[in-house]
Each structure stands twice: as C-alpha cells, then as structure tokens.
Amino acid sequence: MVTPSSSLLTLEQALATMLDAVAPVTVADTENVPLTEACGRISAESIVSPVNVPPFDNAAMDGYAVRLADLTPGALLPVAGRALAGVPFTGQWPAGSALRIMTGAPTPAGAEAVIMQEYAQVDEQGVRFSVAPAAGEHIRRVGDDIRQGDEVLPAGRLLQVAELPLLASLGIASVRVCRRLRVALFSTGDELRPIGAPLAAGEIHDTNRFAIRLMLTQLGCEVIDLGIIADDAAALREAFRQADSRADLLITSGGVSVGEADYTKTMLEELGQIHFWKLAMKPGKPFAFGRLGQAWFCGLPGNPVSAAITFYQLVQPLIARLGGRRDWRTPPRLRARALTPLGKTPGRLDFQRGRYRLDDAGELTVETTGPQGSHVFSSFACANCFIVLEQARGDVAAGEWVTIEPFNALLQG
Ligand code: AMP
Ligand code: MG
Q1: Ligand 2 center to residue 260 CA distance, Å?
Q2: Does residue 87 sit in helix, strand or coil?
Q3: What is the pLDDT of residue 284?
Q4: Alpha carbon of 410 to ligand 2 centroid (Å)
Q5: 379 C-alpha to center of ligand 1: Å?
Q6: What percent of the chain has pLDDT above 70?
Q7: Where in 266-371 does DSSP place strands (E)?
Q8: DSSP state for residue 41 in the 8-state scheme
Q9: Cβ(255) to ligand 1 under 6 A?
Q10: DSSP H/E element including 127
Q11: pLDDT tier, 7 (very low <50, low <70, confident <90, very high otherwise)
Q12: What is the number of other CB atoms lying within 10 angstroms of the CB of residue 267?
C-alpha cells in the first residue's frame, strides 16, 4: 500500500482506502446504559419492541363508540356511559346504545367505529348521527404502529432525539451500546501554546487541538488529550507510543507538510505503516493515514481550516466506521446558484465556505463567506455549507450553478 508522494490522490480514493482498511473496533465491547445517558451512543444490538403500539384499541377522535348494527337511519341511541383517556369504560354496554368516548380512551369490546362528535345531535334521550361510519373508522387498533417483537432499531444506529423517545414510548429504560471509541490527540509544533497562555514572539495558540477535541466529543468519542508535542524526535516517539498503547485511533495535527514530514515520517515508518498522501483537495493537501502498532493513525495538516476540513471529510466517516455505526451517510449535496464570484484554480477539489438560503423566488442560492485561505478560520463562523468546486473547474462567475454540501450536526447543530 505505497502511494507515490508525487501524485495527488482524490478525496474519494483516500476515503475508500481508509474505510476498506478498517473494521469496527467497539462492537465486541458493549455496555448497557440508561436511556437518559444514551444520546450520541451507537446501538450494539437490534432493538425489538416488548409491546404493541398502541397497546390497546382506542379512539382516534372525541365522539361516540357504536356498533354498526345499531345505526339504522334516524335511530336514537341512549348514551350508556363514557370512556376517557386513562379511565376506561368498565360497565355493561347494552345493545342499541352508544358510549361517549374521548381521544385515547380504550374502545370497549364490541365497538366497531367511533363517530366524531361533530356528526352527533345529543339531547336528554340520547344521540342521533348524521353520518354512517365505515367499519373501524376512527379506531386505532392495537399494534397498528408497532407490533410486539418487531425490530424498532437495528444494531449500529446512532441514538439521538429521533430514536430515544421512541424507545421510551415502548417502556424501554436502558439500551445496549457500543463502547466509546478511544481517540488520542496531540498537536505538534514549537510555535504552539495552550489556549489562554501568553504568547512570545512567533507563537500562536493551539486552535487545532481544541477544534478536534470539540468534534471528537460531539462524535461521542472518549478523548485522550496528549497536549502539545514539541518538534523533537524523542518527545514525538514517546507521544506516539503512549497513544498506541491507549487508543483505538490517534489524530495529530501539523508536521505532515513538506519540510517537516521527514521527521515524523521516519519515526512513523519505525512505529507502524503510514502513508503520506497529497490529496487533490483544497484546503487539506497533506494528510497521513495508517496504522501504528495497534492504533489507527490520521495526521492532519497544521493549518486550522485544512485540519477542520480533512477531519470533517475523512476522519468523521472513519470514526463512524471504527465506532460501529452502520447508518453513516455521506452528507448530501445540492445545487445552488452562486450570488458572488468564486476564485478557483483548476487542479484540486475545493471546499470553500459559504452561506446558502432559499431566496424569495424559491431558488437555492449561495454566497461566499469571504477570504478562503487555509488559515482563515473566521470563514467557518458565518458559514452553513461547503461550496464544493470540482477539480477541473476554474473561476466561478456570479449566477453560475455550483454544488453545495450543507454542514451536518458536527459543524452546525
Ligand atoms: P505544519 O503543518 O506543522 O507545517 O503547520 C502549517 C501551519 O499551521 C503553520 O502556520 C502552523 O503554525 C499552523 N499550525 C500548526 N499546528 C497548529 C495548531 N495546532 N493550531 C493552529 N495553527 C497550527
Ligand atoms: Mg509544524
């Protein structure tokens, strides 16, 4: 698996190589967690319903429960009792009578339809109906929605707001999930200082470790933060060893571009099998992927925008695969009309940051968020999508159609 460093690899080729190389590592090691702590976790087994939903036949409308045989034209039916949600009718229901019933109340045995109260004329003697209902009308039958024993969620599903209340409604109080993926993280660079630390001449704050940490936390990973590692062979070797012994995956930032790579490269060749790629994408050209002794490894470029975009496009799907997700989908792409010109040199797939909206005429439009340099992190702050400009494309004039990729929850909740 040697990639000539001179040739550029497409994003698709890189991603396919990564996803082919790895298998889920968390699925054999599961834990049972209460539903209230399961948000963001991944189901480890198929979840089947222990009950029928609805659990009993019940009224879908406020009105009257009837037997169809009693509904001769103009018939006056005495009202023999009532059923409310949570307060079933428990008496005898004589033939030739109706029951007052409210939405969600159990329909009594023998009820063949519920007639909406809007079609009922009531007086002291009883009730008359102005419609003839079909059999079963406005009755929700037991198990209509979910039958006991049906699979409600497969294994490998990310559990979130759409899934967990469904389980709660079935009376399920805990769920078996994959253990969290353990991800080690460090930044390399003598110029880096922790967030909030005073800066000497030539120093900058370590934004990448913070950004990556935020994304890892959002993805439900357990983060092993190894801090800032100086550009020093012994310190780097020790950090790689540490990470390899404790994590499923190590992510580093910096030190993979030309000029610096040799250092890291020699060491990584000693410790594992790593491929340094030049990706045909912008930002994000230098990227490393491979395996240490037992942990997988991703080396992100140092520029903050490049680091964030390579994380989003390559590491995010890798984490989904390693972490046991089977429901990962590549973020969908849409077509939008560019409102602003976009500078682009042919040769690499370009991920510019943009803001899309549906205009008053119902057309999807997008505009740039400004300067797109790989050090300009502010271009993210007001963006809601990537503008994905194809490899061969050159400058885009205002009014041209472009492809956009709306941010998923990782960048925008
Ligand atoms: P490198 O990939 O190490 O050559 O770094 C490329 C550029 O990104 C340089 O300007 C670095 O100072 C900057 N950089 C590297 N790591 C970080 C980091 N963790 N946070 C912010 N900027 C960084
Ligand atoms: Mg560096």
Answers
A1: 7
A2: strand
A3: 80
A4: 26
A5: 17
A6: 97
A7: 273-279, 281-282, 286-291, 296-300, 334-338, 349-358, 364-368
A8: -
A9: yes
A10: strand 126-129
A11: confident
A12: 16
Q: Ligand 1 centroid to 290 CA: how many Å?
A: 21
For residue 1, tell me if it sits in a domain: no
Name the amino acid, one letter, at 171. Answer: G
Assess whether 281 and 359 both reside in one domain. no
Distance between CA atoms of 59 and 137, rounded to whole angstroms?
9
Judged by DSSP in three states, 251 sits in strand
User: Alpha helix locations (H) across 73-187?
Assistant: 164-169
The CA distance from 180 to 193, in Å, is 29
Among 88, 117, 140, where does a domain finish?
A: 140
Reference 115, options 123, 107, 42; nearest CA is 107
What's the one-letter identity of residue 392?
A
CA 85, chain centre distance (Å):
36
Q: Is 301 in the pocket of ligand 1 (CB under 6 A)?
A: yes
Of 236, 382, 255, 266, nearest to 306 by C-alpha is 255
Q: Is the CB of 260 under 6 A from ligand 1?
A: yes
Q: Is the pLDDT of residue 2 over 50?
A: no
Q: Of 190, 192, 279, 310, which is best to mutate to test ligand 1, by the most ligand atoms within 8 angstroms of its C-beta?
A: 192
The CA distance from 282 to 393, in Å, is: 13
Neighbouring CB atoms inside 10 A of 238's CB total 13
Average pLDDT over residues 259-274: 80
Whether residue 366 contacts residue 387, with contact meaning beta carbons closer than 8 Å, is answered with: yes
Given a cut of 80, whether residue 276 has pLDDT beyond it is yes
> CA dist 327 to 29, 31, 153, 157, 359, Å?
19, 20, 11, 6, 32
What is the domain extent for residue 255?
11-29+179-323
Looking at the structure, do residues 212 and 275 belong to the same domain, yes or no?
Answer: yes
pLDDT in tens, 166-211: 999 999 999 999 999 999 999 999 999 999 999 999 999 999 999 9
Residue 44: predicted pLDDT: 97
Closest ligand, as measured to the CA of 376: 1
Smallest Cα–Cα separation from 293: which of 255, 260, 246? 246
Compute the average pLDDT of residues 209-230: 96
Q: How do 385-389 and 349-358 pair as beta strands?
A: antiparallel
Based on the fold, state whether residues 156 and 209 are members of the same structural domain.
no
pLDDT band at 3 (very low <50, low <70, confident <90, very high): very low
Q: How is residue 146 written in tokens?
A: 């979910």
